[in-house]
Amino acid sequence: GDSVTQMEGPVTLSEEAFLTINCTYTATGYPSLFWYVQYPGEGLQLLLKATKADDKGSNKGFEATYRKETTSFHLEKGSVQVSDSAVYFCALSEGAGSYQLTFGKGTKLSVIP
Amino acid sequence: GAGVSQSPSNKVTEKGKDVELRCDPISGHTALYWYRQSLGQGLEFLIYFQGNSAPDKSGLPSDRFSAERTGGSVSTLTIQRTQQEDSAVYLCASSPRAGIGYTFGSGTRLTVV
């Protein structure tokens, strides 16, 4: 079955540091890939997505590129802020009409001033 | 409504009691989903509704779990004879149609003591 593996947390960074959260996947088909963010006390919010190979999703300074050859979708940000402190989830769905999201276990990011 | 609303936000119950968790989706969203977020386990798919019917109940962990949706709107997840391993955050999401544009609620944190 489908699965998503993301780096274990927690991750603690200083403000303005570079962020990478690794995510790799296994899927039987040609999935769409997502990063969701969960701020404290809130629901999951879609951060960015990519639907085909070499697509780059971007939002709020975060980027991730769909790499089919390495089955990866690593999240990056060049300069993190305290407000980026949250739990980040990598997820996939199997494509058009697929209703189920398969999530990684989440990576907690703490950014300190 | 403006977002997906879940109630209660927190629930503490004694082992063996039944609990009901409620989800109010975004108006007009035909698809509704329940996920469970357990500590260290990521998000686990429970059930998917299209309108009032549930084409996929495969994620429900046992026959103690059931869910219904009425009027194509509100959904209730019921857990009978709760066990300590049921302690988790239960997340509801809705979308305009299957697999497109999930919006998550803030969840219900269930603690079984």
Textual characterization of the structure:
- The complex is a heterodimer of chains A (113) and B (113).
- Chain A has 113 residues and is mainly β.
- Helix content of chain A is 0%, strand content 50%.
- Chain A has strands at 3-6, 11-14, 19-21, 23-26, 32-38, 44-50, 56-59, 62-65, 75-77, 86-93, 102-103, 107-112.
- In chain A, strands 2, 5, 6, 10, 11 and 12 form a six-stranded mixed sheet that branches. In chain A, strands 3-9-8-7 form a four-stranded antiparallel sheet, with no helix packed on it. In chain A, strands 1-4 form a two-stranded antiparallel sheet.
- Chain A is globular and about 40 Å long.
- In chain A, 35% of the residues are buried.
- With 113 residues, chain B is mainly beta.
- In chain B, strands 2, 4, 5, 6, 9, 10 and 11 form a seven-stranded mixed sheet that branches.
- Chain B is globular.
- Chain B has no helices and eleven strands.
- Classes of the chains: A mainly beta (113), B mainly beta (113).
- Chains A and B meet through β6, β10 and β11 of A and β4, β5, β9 and β10 of B.
Put simply, the count of helices of chain A is: 0
Written as H for each helix and E for each strand, in order along the chain, the element string of chain B is EEEEEEEEEEE
SSE series of chain A = EEEEEEEEEEEE
Radius of gyration of chain A: 13 Å
Mean pLDDT of chain B: 93
- Uncertain segments of chain A: none
Low-pLDDT runs of chain B: none
Largest sheet of chain A: 6 strands, mixed
Separate helix tally of chain B:
0
Amino-to-carboxy terminus distance of chain A: 41 Å
Largest interface: A-B, 21 and 24 residues
Oligomer: heterodimer
Amount of beta strand of chain B: over 45%
Class from secondary-structure proportions of chain B: mainly beta
Query: Using DSSP, what is the number of strands of chain B?
Result: 11
Helix content of chain B: under 10%
Structural class of chain A: mainly beta
Number of strands of chain A: 12
Q: Helical content of chain A, roughly?
A: under 10%
**Anisotropy-based shape of chain A:** globular
